[in-house]
Amino acid sequence: MKPAITLIELLVVIALVGIIAGTGWPALTGWNCKQETNPSGSSSVQLFEKARAEALNRSQTVLVRANRSLPANGATYTAYLLTNKTCTLSGSAQSLDPNIPKLVISDKSRLLGVANQCFNSDGTATASNSIQLHQVQRDCGKGNQTLQTLIFGATGLFEKKVKRPGDSSFSDL
Prior knowledge:
By secondary structure, the protein is α+β, with helices and mostly antiparallel strands. It is built from one helix and eleven strands.
């Protein structure tokens, strides 16, 4: 007789593989969600850093504007060079698209926070609201993953934090 596996042994192996895959799948989907959220938050910080550097280099105010006209969620960030210091988009504003490309936030994410963020020629920052807080949030099944960027007005510097599903507060990145 040749050595072989029985039907019962084959069914036991298939059942074990199914159990292991079933318990690991929810953790894997949550991990994917977090990995897809991180680039949006990191890219928005890089956009703000480029806009601040451009304002310092050109000695003019740079406006970063979030266009939330996309369906439901998501947004597009665009940087503009302003001739005034009012932190509002006017007809004389020049798009900085070649130097600072537009940033599209996925429609799977929500953009929370101020609509307009300005960086002045002296390195300071002003916004359309008194709190200069920008958040990119995504539902990851068991809760929201939120990446937060706080911009300090007097210095124009950034504080980057994350709030993972199940956390009660933000932690440093």
